Every structure is written in structure tokens, then in C-alpha cells.
Amino acid sequence: MVAFVTSPFDAVAGIPDGATVMIGGFGEAGQPVALIEALLEHGARDLVVVNNNAGSAEVGLALLIAADRVRKVVCSFPRQSDSWHFDEKYRAGTIELELVPQGNLAERIRAAGAGIGAFYTPTGYGTLLAAGKETREIDGRHHVLEHPLRADFALIRAHLADERGNLTYRRTARNFGPIMATAATTTIAEVTRVVPAGGIDPENVVTPGIYVDRVVAVEPASGARDAARHGRGAAT
Asked: Which run of H or E residues covers position 179?
């Protein structure tokens, strides 16, 4: 049964050191900033984080990396102009990186939620990303065997939840949230508000409540990116 908690700190309670945590978001779109900040306050360390990016500017995941709470990042896009915290840690050798092509990342997460044992994909064949992996020729094309990507916890940002834990998302903020919700042992959703049961048309439910364990209502931060940029200039 889904638990509705009153604060982000209560929502992330119980995430231990060494946990694998999926964090939704494509850059800052759909990033559960309040949950990440609560996790920072909570103090869990040695985390393995699965995210599309490796943090940006001075908000959300970037601050978790800056505080040396993350041991390893699994992502598809680790380097951008404002990913200075990850860049510094990686160059210093204090954080690990598993680079995964974006389509493979999404499919590995989806496969975990769907109960798929493994899958073949041509993406990555003949590159360093295929080193040590099983390969196979299928219909005249070489493929790489990829395995599902699971997590202990998923932190996601949705738009609405109802009292049964069903979720909807707002536009592109949907991105990785739905598949991450299915691939984690415990899914924690940060939402804008909670509506009564029946307040979401069943046809509009994206993530059924069966995949959701905890929900906390948090108003989305406004202007977080602009505020973050006042703290440090963009990297070149």
C-alpha cells in the first residue's frame, strides 16, 4: 500500500549507504529536486546513481555529487557545460562512471521492470562500450547483449498523484520516471499535489499505484537554474 508522507526527508528515510538509486529527469526536466536535497540532508553515502545525466550547475544531483555522496554514476550524458561537479570528481578519480547509450539505458531500465532477462541491441557494437560483452550476429547485423538495470530505490518527479498512488506527469518531465518506477524495489514520488481517488481519469494514468511506495507533495521550485548560476559561472 502506498504511504503518503508529509516531508521529503521522511520520504527518503531508510535509504542506506551503498544503495543503488535511480533518479528521474532529463537534465533538470522532471528531476525530483526536493527528494535529492532531502537525501543530501539524510546523509546516505557511497551511492550508485542511475540518471540520464551527471548533474548540472548547483542544483539537485550535482549537489549530491559535490558532497561526495556518490560512488558511481550510470548515465548516458555525463558531460555538459555546467556539469562541473561531476567533471572535477571524475578527473580526480573519486567517482566511477558507467557510460550507457541513451536508448540502451532506457531499455535496460524498462527490461528490469518488464522482467526481461537480457536483450540484444546493435547499439555499441564495435566500440569500447561493448568490451567484454557477449555479441551475436542477428539477420546479418552484429548485436551486443545487454542486461537489465535494477535499483533499490527510484526517486521520481510526477505532476499529480491520487490517493491510490496513481501518477500523471507534466509534458517532458515524464521522461525516465515511468520506467524507473517499475525497475526499483522502492519507488518514491515527489508530486505537485494529491487528488482524491478517481480524480485522475484512468485513461490518463501513466504510472499505476502498484509501482509506487511513497508519495510526498512538494511545490515545484521556480527559477532553480537561474539561482544556481549565481553561485558559480558556467564551465567552458
From this structure: helix 177-183
Q: Of 177, 210, 231, nearest to 62 (Cα)?
A: 231
- Supply the pTM of this predicted model: 0.90
Alpha-carbon gap, residue 84 to 98, rounded angstroms = 18
Number of helical (H) and strand (E) elements in the chain, helices listed first:
7, 14
Domain extent listing, the chain: 3-100+149-219
3-state secondary structure at position 193: strand
pLDDT tens string 2-49: 999 999 999 999 999 999 999 999 988 999 999 999 999 999 999 999
CATH 3.40.1080.10 fits 3-100+149-219, yes or no: yes
Angle (nearest 5°) at CA 138 between 136 and 142? 55
The CA-atom distances, in angstroms, between 30 and each of 8, 77, 185, 192 are: 16, 16, 20, 12
Distance CA 174, CA 3 (A): 22
Spatial distance between the Cα atoms of 119 and 96, rounded to a whole number of angstroms:
25
Q: Is 12 helix (H, G, I), strand (E, B) or coil?
A: coil
Q: How many residues are recorded in the chain?
A: 236
Instruction: Quickly tell me which residue has 532477462 as its cell.
Output: 117
| CA–CA distance, 86 with 92 (Å, rounded to integer) | 10
> What does the alpha-carbon distance between residue 115 and residue 132 come to, in Å, rounded to a whole number?
24
Joined together, the cell numbers standing for residue 229 give 548560476
Helix H or strand E encompassing 85: helix 84-92
